[in-house]
Specification:
By secondary structure, the protein is mostly helical. 49% of the residues lie in helices and 10% in strands. The chain has a domain at 2-67: lambda repressor-like DNA-binding domains (434 Repressor (Amino-terminal Domain), Orthogonal Bundle), CATH 1.10.260.40.
Length: 97
Amino acid sequence: MGDVLRRERLAQERTLKDVADAARISMPYLSELERGRKEASSEVLAAAAHALGLGLADLLARAHRQLVRPARPLRSRHGHRPTQAQSRFGEVRLLAA
C-alpha cells in the first residue's frame, strides 16, 4: 500500500510534508508507511488517500492492480522457455535443467 501512496505523491510532485499535513498525520509516519515499515489503519489510509485526491476505494484498487500483475513467463536457468502442455487439470509447465 505504501508504494502506491509514494507513486501517487511523486506523480503529483508533492512533498511528504505537504501530504502529511493535508492528511493530518506526521511526516515520519507517512514516510514509514510509504516504505512499508508501518501498517496503517483504514482511517489513516483514507486520510492519506484523500490528501492525494483519491478515495480509499481508489487507493485499494490501485494496490490490488499492483498485486495481481500478470506473471512473467517462466524460464530455466539457461534462459530457455519451458515446454507447455495442456492437461485436463489445466496448463502444465515442464522445465528441463
